[in-house]
């Protein structure tokens, strides 16, 4: 009786939605599986593309996992974790974004029956973390180093890695052409970590094969004034002056007031303005520079002045382009035209203005520092060129990683099958429930080769059985065997040059395991709709108040008019 009379304890606001226990964990797992099902079909060389149409009316066609995940605008709190791991994989390694989402969802899917049977999620998490550590050690053991090879050998090895990445993209048909282009671009920037030193310029029209690489900088012709066409359009070994100065006849910026007692003095003030700009232009010419670029405007007077002296100029150059020109030519951007010495001028072998499609490009090639490269992309539709740019970004990231870490593993699902076999063998040596959990982790890793088969239209069960049999050989010769996309059988991924940097796999398995453990460790979800609606009400009442005030004022004015 006393227990019944105790007051009820109210801890959370009225209307708060709490879900806990097994049911909400299973619900979170289902949400993650649903997200993975969206990107599942984009995996591998035969993966399909997704067309995403947003509320602004822009259309994106892509099969890059991270791009799709960003554009899906997911609201489920647990499923958002998958979006985050796809983004982190994209920024860290560049490729393997679909892989990481699929692995995380598959780990959760394998954990689901155990959760339903009442296994505590901490036991699963412990086993998954152990399995993850073992898997990463095995990858490092199986990885093959490409260090110590000559530059030519290295280039061909890196091109193989780039081809593997590009084979699953829209531009997969021309992967050899683009792979060598990407490798040249990455080697051109050397040890520079800044990705923006590789510029990608998009020009609609032509076909993919019309794309080209400039070992230097290329940018679109900027807005120009009269007199521009009289300037020479090609120089050999020119000196290049980079400015952040306006070369335009301007009235004083500040509200200067000058009082004159004599009208004849007016002319001297006008002359002074002209003298200032001519002085600036003379200093530019006397520096010996043949190409003058400025981030700010170069006016019609300056354009004509330079044209008369056989100097090329371009104003309003984008900041990133100017920075790349500075890095490539060895010049320094000047904020004043006073004291221009030879050390601040850049140089290159050839400067020319060239027609590319409908656009004109200013191209600096043969740059001494050579710390930059530009890829000019051609193609039919805008969406196609956008997707080509995203694909090249992935390939550039992969080649950079392979250069830095210089170890590669067999692709095509080979490494996943080998780790799966290794973990299954290891699980047999463990007594207790943990054996089952590590076994389920090993089974989840098979999702990659299975999905590669499904997307290519092959019989996944048949191919996986062949792969299991090959990887089970005691000699270990089956380790590099993966799915052969062209025949529907299995093949040695190393001899077929289907390679990927070891860092991609290590990162993907690490991130996927972390995400799966994070979702498994959540035992209660608290949603507070009251606070959301309170914000909405406050905004609405503020709007309503303003509106009513307006209405009253209107009535008052109306009465005034009638009187």
Automatic annotation (TrEMBL):
Residues 529-563 are annotated as: Disordered. InterPro entries: Chap_CCT_eta, Chaperone_TCP-1, Chaperonin_TCP-1_CS, Cpn60/GroEL/TCP-1, GroEL-like_apical_dom_sf, GROEL-like_equatorial_sf, TCP-1-like_intermed_sf, TCP-1_chaperonin. Residues 544-553 have a biased composition (Gly residues). Keywords: ATP-binding, Chaperone, Cytoplasm, Nucleotide-binding. It is found in: Cytoplasm. GO terms for cellular component: chaperonin-containing T-complex. Transmembrane segments: none annotated. Its main location: cytoplasm. Belongs to the TCP-1 chaperonin family. This is T-complex protein 1 subunit eta. The lineage of its organism: Eukaryota, Viridiplantae, Streptophyta, Embryophyta, Tracheophyta.
């Amino acid at each position: 009786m006393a227990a019944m009379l105790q007051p009820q304890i109210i801890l959370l606001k009225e209307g708060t939605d709490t879900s806990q226990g097994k049911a909400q964990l299973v619900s979170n797992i289902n949400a993650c599986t649903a997200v993975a099902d969206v990107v599942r079909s984009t995996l591998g060389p035969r993966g399909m593309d997704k067309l995403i149409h947003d509320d602004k009316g822009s259309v994106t066609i892509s099969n890059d996992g991270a791009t799709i995940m960003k554009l899906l605008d997911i609201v489920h709190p647990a499923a958002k974790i998958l979006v985050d791991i796809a983004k982190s994989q994209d920024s860290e390694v560049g490729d393997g974004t679909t892989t990481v989402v699929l692995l995380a969802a598959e780990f959760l899917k394998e954990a689901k029956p155990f959760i339903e049977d009442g296994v505590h999620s901490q036991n699963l998490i412990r086993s998954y973390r152990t399995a993850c550590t073992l898997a990463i050690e095995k990858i490092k053991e199986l990885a093959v180093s490409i260090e110590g090879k000559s530059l030519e050998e290295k280039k061909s090895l890196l091109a193989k890695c780039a081809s593997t990445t590009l084979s699953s993209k829209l531009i997969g048909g021309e992967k050899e052409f683009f792979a060598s282009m990407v490798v040249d671009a990455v080697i051109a920037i050397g040890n520079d970590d800044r990705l923006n030193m590789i510029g990608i310029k998009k020009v609609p029209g032509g076909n993919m094969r019309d794309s080209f690489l400039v070992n230097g900088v290329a940018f679109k012709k900027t807005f120009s004034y009269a007199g521009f066409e009289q300037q020479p359009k090609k120089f050999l070994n020119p000196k290049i002056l980079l400015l952040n100065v306006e070369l335009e006849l301007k009235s004083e910026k500040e509200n200067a007031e000058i009082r004159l007692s004599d009208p004849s003095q007016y002319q001297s003030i006008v002359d002074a303005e002209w003298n200032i700009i001519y002085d600036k232009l003379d200093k530019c010419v006397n520096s010996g520079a043949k190409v003058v670029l400025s981030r700010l405007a170069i006016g019609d007077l300056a354009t004509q002045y330079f044209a008369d002296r056989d100097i090329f100029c371009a104003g309003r150059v984008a900041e990133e382009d100017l920075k790349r020109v500075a890095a490539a030519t060895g010049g320094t951007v000047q904020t004043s035209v006073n004291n221009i010495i030879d050390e601040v001028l850049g140089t290159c072998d050839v400067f020319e203005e060239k027609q590319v499609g409908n656009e004109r490009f200013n191209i600096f090639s043969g740059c001494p520092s050579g710390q930059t490269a530009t890829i000019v992309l051609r193609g039919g539709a805008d969406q196609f060129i956008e997707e080509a740019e995203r694909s090249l970004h992935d390939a550039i990231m992969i080649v950079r990683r392979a250069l830095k870490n210089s170890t590669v593993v067999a692709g095509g699902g080979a490494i996943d099958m080998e780790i799966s076999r290794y973990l299954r063998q290891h699980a047999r040596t463990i007594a207790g429930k943990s054996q089952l959990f590590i076994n389920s982790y090993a089974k989840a890793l098979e999702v990659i080769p299975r999905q590669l088969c499904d997307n290519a239209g092959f019989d996944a069960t048949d191919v996986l059985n062949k792969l299991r049999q090959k990887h089970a050989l005691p000699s270990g010769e089956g380790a590099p065997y993966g799915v052969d996309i062209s025949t529907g059988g299995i093949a040695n991924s190393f001899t077929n040059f289907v390679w990927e940097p070891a860092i991609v796999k290590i990162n993907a398995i690490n991130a996927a395991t972390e995400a799966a453990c994070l979702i498994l460790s959540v035992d209660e979800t608290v949603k507070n709709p009251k606070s959301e609606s309170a914000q909405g009400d406050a905004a609405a009442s503020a709007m309503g108040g303003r509106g009513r005030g307006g209405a009253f004022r209107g009535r008052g004015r109306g009465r005034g008019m009638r009187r």
